[in-house]
Specification:
Blueprint lengths: L3 H14 L1 H23 L3 H13 L2 H9 L1 E2 L2 H20 L2 H4 L2 H28 L7 H29 L8 E3 L2 E3 L11 E3 L4 E5 L5 E5 L2 E3 L2 H28 L4 H10 L2 E2 L3 H9 L1
Antiparallel strand pairs: 1-8, 2-7, 3-4, 5-6
């Protein structure tokens, strides 16, 4: 556990080493604070809470470094800040999710890519530092891939839970003009009945309200969930391909080497080592 002086010195060293990341962090944080001040003046407290959440999430990289004694590369840390800002400020408050349908797809793809990097880093670090462990490149990248997909599934569980229990709409809907179902089979023999060319549906509630869906019926989140998992899969596969090429061929694969070096976590030097380096 660092003393306050050691922790301040550690933060100062990080700022010197990652000046670009610190500038990015400061700019994004300033934007969030300005949005929060405006939301308070307009009495929009939902937006205020979202801004407070974002400010708290911005501390995640430094908290993880301190708790796990890891060093997050500057590129990775910068992407984390941009990801949080893009998801919460631009996506939720800026309504990018509805204005740009590709926005959610892009973030889920990046999520799969980044968490594959996290899984890869964790296992590769253990593989490199422990003499009793010697995992093959294929096995290591498979673990990274499975880690990324597990995180993707857990996030879909969270979205589903938010929709059911908090009455949100995190699993976005699609209008579908065809479907097939055994529920429509009058003989109950599980014969698949296909319904095509749906031009519209009408929803009626017990309170007398009526909603008309033009062009088909409203698919409640199923296709969105599968789309999110698919792009998470693609993101994970892309990083694992880079990771496998790096482990198999090393510096010979320059692109793979650059990607892995910029996105893999490293063991942090101890306070004693930092002190010795400063004395030197």
């Amino acid at each position: 556990m660092r003393t306050p002086n050691q922790y301040i010195r550690h933060l100062g060293n990080n700022v010197k080493e990652q000046r670009g990341v610190f500038i990015l962090y400061s700019i994004l944080r300033l934007f969030v604070v300005l949005i929060m001040i405006r939301s308070v003046m307009l009495h929009n407290f939902d937006t205020t809470l979202t801004c407070l959440l974002v400010l708290a999430l911005f501390f995640i990289p430094s908290l993880l470094e301190e708790a796990l004694k890891l060093k997050i590369p500057a590129l990775f840390e910068g992407i984390i800040y941009c990801f949080i800002f893009a998801a919460e400020i631009l996506g939720e408050l800026g309504h990018f999710y509805t204005q740009f349908p590709i926005w959610d797809t892009m973030l889920h793809t990046l999520n799969g890519f980044l968490f594959a990097a996290v899984g890869f880093s964790t296992v590769e670090l253990l593989n490199r530092t422990n003499k009793n462990i010697n995992l093959s490149p294929l096995y290591l990248t498979m673990v990274a891939f499975c880690f990324s997909m597990t995180i993707g599934v857990l996030w879909e569980f969270f979205e589903c839970g938010a929709d059911i229990f908090l009455h949100q709409d995190m699993q976005k809907d699609f209008v579908v003009d065809h479907f097939q179902s055994v529920t429509l089979d009058p003989s109950h023999s599980q014969e698949v009945i296909r319904v095509e060319d749906i031009t519209g549906t009408v929803i009626q509630t017990a309170s007398g309200e009526t909603y008309t869906i033009d062009g088909g019926y409203l698919d409640i989140g199923i296709l969105d969930t599968m789309k999110d998992l698919l792009v998470n899969f693609i993101g994970a596969i892309v990083f694992c391909s880079f990771g496998f090429a790096f482990l198999k061929h090393g510096e010979k694969r320059k692109v793979a080497s650059s990607v892995v070096a910029g996105l893999t976590l490293k063991a942090e030097t101890s306070d004693e080592e930092e002190t010795q380096e400063e004395k030197q």
